[in-house]
């Protein structure tokens, strides 16, 4: 019968623990082992006359709980085999110990699937003697401490094989004080741990395409059908700019004069009508000069002539002043280089640059 102390320890050990098994494996395992046990001293106690044949084969079954991957507790039942001798009354003694064990185990993984173990605990043993072929059977019980060590190999995540050594102390028969024994055990142990390792979640690579080939991925593209020739913004939408229409105004001036001759008002009137048809339009009147005379003078003259055309556009044809501006460029933007008659005629000009009539895409 298991003594009260061992029962209390057992009940305490079976309480739920806060620790959880890692990687989806259960903290619970079961197993069994077989081996060879050697009682000592075997033939040098005062009750022993001669030694007989031992039956050293031992076995055990057990269940365990792991607090973590390195530490746990085991509860089991062990049979340590039997030993024989003849006492001084020439009677055969056949003695063996068996009983429930409870102990702590520690593990140290040191290589892939390999681990070392150490254990310590107590065996609540029953030592029995089938003396004289059972005609004088007697027994006694007690608690014997033990320590052990082992090396194990994980055949699978669940199945583990270990080679074990254990040393038992104080396997004593105290009723008649005829036996004071220790024991050495060597054996193999196979255990099964419940559960299965969680399979790692492999992230699925999401390939985001660019269907319209505009440089913006489809998941960010707010304008998915943009033509491949258009420049786009960060949302994948076409970038637009104001279209600019250029008009050549055949404005005629007297030499060195900024007064527009009435005979050249026709182009200015056409410009005013065009702007009336496009209410959002704006115009810049640009004056250009030929490469004759001083550059500073030509710059000032081209600006006065541009202002003169702008005044006619506003004051005669009613274009809003806020939509008209003027600028002189002098000889800085010639159509034809040089100062030939042909170059001077081409470079001495008035241009109207109209914007705001429509939006056009910016091309790559």
Please explain how this structure is put together:
- The protein has 364 residues and is mainly beta.
- The protein is 14% helix and 46% strand.
- It has helices spanning 4-13, 265-277, 295-315, 341-347; strands spanning 25-40, 48-51, 57-66, 71-87, 92-111, 114-129, 138-154, 159-173, 179-195, 240-249, 282-288, 324-330, 349-361.
- The strands form two sheets. Strands 1-3-4-5-6-7-8-9 form an eight-stranded antiparallel barrel. Strands 10-13-11-12 form a four-stranded mixed beta sheet.
- Strand 8 and strand 9 (179-195) form a beta hairpin.
- 27% of the residues are buried.
List its traits.
single chain, 364 residues, mainly beta, eight-stranded antiparallel β-barrel, four-stranded mixed beta sheet, 13 strands, rod-shaped, disordered N terminus
Share in β-strands: over 45%
Give me the side-by-side strand order of the main sheet: 1-3-4-5-6-7-8-9
Mean pLDDT over all positions: 85
Radius of gyration: 54 Å
Summarize the structure.
The protein has 364 residues and is mainly β. 14% of the residues lie in helices and 46% in strands. The strands form 2 sheets. An 8-stranded antiparallel β-barrel has the order 1-3-4-5-6-7-8-9. A 4-stranded mixed sheet has the order 10-13-11-12.
Secondary structure elements and pairings:
Blueprint: H1 4-13, E1 25-40, E2 48-51, E3 57-66, E4 71-87, E5 92-111, E6 114-129, E7 138-154, E8 159-173, E9 179-195, E10 240-249, H2 265-277, E11 282-288, H3 295-315, E12 324-330, H4 341-347, E13 349-361
Parallel strand pairs: 11-12
Antiparallel strand pairs: 1-3, 1-9, 2-4, 3-4, 4-5, 5-6, 6-7, 7-8, 8-9, 10-13, 11-13
């Amino acid at each position: 019968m298991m003594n009260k102390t061992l029962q209390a320890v057992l009940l305490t050990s079976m309480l739920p623990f806060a620790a959880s098994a890692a990687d989806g494996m259960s903290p619970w395992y079961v197993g069994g082992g077989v081996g060879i046990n050697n009682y000592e001293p075997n033939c040098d106690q005062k009750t022993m006359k001669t030694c007989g044949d031992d039956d050293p084969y031992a076995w055990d079954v057990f269940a365990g709980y792991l607090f973590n991957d390195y530490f746990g507790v085991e509860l089991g039942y062990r049979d340590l085999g039997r030993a024989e001798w003849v006492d001084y009354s020439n009677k055969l003694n056949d003695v063996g110990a068996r009983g429930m064990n409870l102990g702590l185990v520690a593990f140290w993984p040191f290589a892939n699937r390999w681990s070392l173990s150490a254990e310590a605990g107590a065996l609540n043993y029953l030592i029995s003697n089938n003396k004289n072929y059972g005609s004088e059977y007697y027994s006694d019980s007690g608690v014997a401490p033990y320590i052990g060590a082992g090396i194990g190999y994980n055949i699978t995540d669940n199945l583990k094989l270990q080679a074990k050594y254990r040393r038992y102390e104080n396997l004593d028969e105290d009723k008649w004080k005829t036996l004071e024994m220790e024991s050495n055990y060597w054996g193999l142990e196979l255990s099964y741990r419940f559960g299965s390792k969680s399979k790692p979640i492999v992230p699925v690579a999401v390939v985001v395409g660019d269907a319209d080939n505009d440089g913006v991925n489809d998941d960010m593209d707010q304008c998915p059908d943009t033509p491949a020739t258009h420049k786009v913004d960060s949302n994948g939408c076409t970038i637009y700019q104001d279209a600019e229409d250029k008009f050549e105004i055949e404005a005629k001036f007297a030499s060195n004069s900024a007064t527009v001759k009435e005979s050249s008002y026709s182009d200015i009137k056409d410009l005013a009508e065009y702007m009336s048809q496009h209410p959002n339009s704006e115009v810049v009147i640009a004056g250009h000069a030929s490469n004759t005379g001083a550059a500073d003078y030509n710059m000032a003259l081209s600006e006065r002539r541009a202002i003169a055309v702008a005044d006619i556009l506003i004051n005669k044809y009613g274009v809003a002043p806020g939509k008209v501006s003027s600028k002189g460029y002098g000889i800085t933007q010639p159509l034809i280089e040089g100062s030939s008659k042909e170059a001077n005629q081409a470079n001495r000009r008035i241009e109207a640059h109209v914007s705001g009539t429509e939006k056009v895409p910016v091309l790559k």
